[in-house]
Give the backbone structure.
Amino acid sequence: MALDEDASNPASYWNQLAESQAAGTAVTCRCGEENPSHYDTCHFCQHPFGRP
């Protein structure tokens, strides 16, 4: 996903992140960025979260 993607798209990273933050389920990557809890890799650095 591009960092300049359409923020008006409900499936965009930014909208999913806002929903995850509001629910208290956002995950912080080792690069320091928060991601929606259902992501397997960091949106920014692409580091995997290592979930089973």
The chain is about 20% helix and 10% strand. Residues 13-23 form the longest helix (11 residues). The mean pLDDT is 82. The two ends are 24 Å apart (CA to CA).
